[in-house]
Amino acid sequence: MKKVILIFLVTLIGFMDFSCEKVITIKEKPYQDQLSIECLLVPGQVPKLFLNKSVAYFSSKTSSADLFITDATVKISSGNETDILKPSSERNPFLCQEEFFYLGKIPAVFGKTYKLEVVYQGTTYTAETTINQSKPKLNTVDYTQKFNDVYGEHEGIILNFNDTQNEENNYRFQMIRQVDSTVRTANNKVYRTECNGANKFTINEVGRSVYNDQNKNGLPMSFVIEPAYTHTNGQVAKVYLQTMDSKSAAFFDALDRQKLATYNPFVEPVFLKSQIAGCIGVFGSLNISEPIEFIFPE
């Protein structure tokens, strides 16, 4: 009996080792790209709009230069004032490449309602937003060595603040700091940029998640965020708190949950609902707190 069981186990293991792998060639189906629009107005800042075309999942064309649409007409208006946005670019020092977008000239103003109009290949896309989110106040910023989320255990930066009373707010993290070419993404320890040498450059980290103030009207709030990039002991950063309109918050929340579903097969699939009819996109507004200086303790 023991010999029979042993032979069975050896046969089973052999089957598992040599019979459970199969190379599958996936044939790409025809793909129709879509227009993608992203623009969030900030009081005191000129409009900056990203206008791209979507690509198939397995496409190798993923750079800003590959995706950017150059031949559209982009207008943002409020009352009798119209800002015509023009193609522009700036260097992303971390990725060592140019990022392309449409840039306006007239700074956005708190309390005003703005209408977006994008004309591309004979089709007009429109959206509207009102900048009515009060400027939030960030109280303190703390640090924790460990906190757990669905991605595992991480270090974290803790934002402490009081919810703005009698407003619907959706909060998000932002941090700006100076780094050098030794920095790399927190979730990919291998990749790092080398194009800047020993020169310092600025990185702007914007939180992936959005936190709603539901049932917390005027009450103290806090949330923990994992830094997107690595750091060194004593590195100085400026931390901000953003609050955005509800439609924009819904868009970015769905985008976050969609990413979560991509990495976890046990999470229910999430469909991204556009906030601009006829394309994938969002046109909204946000307000940003004054910064608090934060020094990484380790």
Write structural notes for this entry.
The protein is mainly β and 298 residues long. The chain has two domains: 35-130, Immunoglobulin-like (Sandwich); 138-295, no CATH class. 13% of the residues lie in helices and 41% in strands. The chain contains three helices and 16 strands. The strands form two sheets. Strands 1, 2, 3, 4, 5, 6, 7, 10, 11, 12, 14, 15 and 16 form a 13-stranded mixed β-sheet that branches. A hairpin with a 6-residue loop joins strand 1 (35-41) and strand 2 (48-53). The longest helix has 18 residues, at 2-19. The chain is globular. Residues 1-13 have low confidence and may be disordered.
What Rg, in angstroms, do the CA atoms define? 23 Å
How many extended strands? 16
Provide the succession of SSEs. HEEHEEEEEEEEEEEEHEE
Strand content: 35-45%
Give the % helix. Answer: 10-25%
Shape: globular
Low-confidence stretches: 1-13
Mean pLDDT: 87
Distance between the termini: 60 Å
The major sheet is characterized as: 13 strands, mixed
Number of helices: 3
Briefly note the structural class of the backbone: mainly beta
Our count of domains comes out at 2
Can you describe this structure in just a few lines?
The chain is mostly beta strands and 298 residues long. It has helices at 2-19, 64-67, 246-263, and strands at residues 35-41, 48-53, 73-78, 81-92, 97-103, 113-120, 123-130, 138-149, 152-162, 170-179, 201-206, 211-212, 220-225, 236-244, 280-288, 292-295.
